[in-house]
């Protein structure tokens, strides 16, 4: 074991033959990777979140929607955080507004 320790002490201080500016290249590479990650992952996700929040804010009584669980219904009542979906003539379900996945064109539920 002492054989390895003596070799470690005998090595020269600093990298031998390393090109100058290597640290700058590493920093540039990290910045490039962050920018690439930003455009491929973070930016599209924020765009989808903004579109969804705009859609949820624009909900109105009578809109036909589909929830994230796949339930189709017509909005019967709206509150600040909740909405009531009329699923059939006698069934009404209460959901959070954020549970709405998409707004359907008028008449979609009757066509199904």
Automatic annotation (TrEMBL):
TM ranges: 24-42
Origin superkingdom: Bacteria
Entry keyword set: Cell membrane, Membrane, Protein transport, Translocation, Transmembrane, Transmembrane helix, Transport
Pfam families with a match to the protein in the record: YajC
Localization, UniProt: Cell membrane
Leader sequence segment: none
Principal location: membrane
NCBIfam families: yajC
Record protein name field: Sec translocon accessory complex subunit YajC
Species annotation: Spongiibacter pelagi
Gene: yajC
């Amino acid at each position: 074991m002492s054989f390895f320790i003596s070799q470690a002490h005998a090595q020269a201080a600093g990298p031998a033959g390393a090109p100058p500016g290597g640290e700058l290249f590493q920093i540039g590479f990290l910045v490039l990777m962050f920018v690439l990650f930003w455009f491929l992952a973070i930016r599209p996700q924020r765009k989808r979140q903004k579109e969804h929040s705009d859609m949820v804010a624009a909900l109105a009584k009578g809109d036909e929607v589909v929830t994230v669980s796949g339930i189709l219904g017509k909005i019967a009542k709206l509150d600040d955080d909740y909405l009531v979906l009329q699923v059939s003539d006698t069934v009404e379900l209460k959901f959070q507004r954020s549970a709405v996945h998409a707004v359907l064109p008028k008449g979609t539920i009757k066509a199904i």
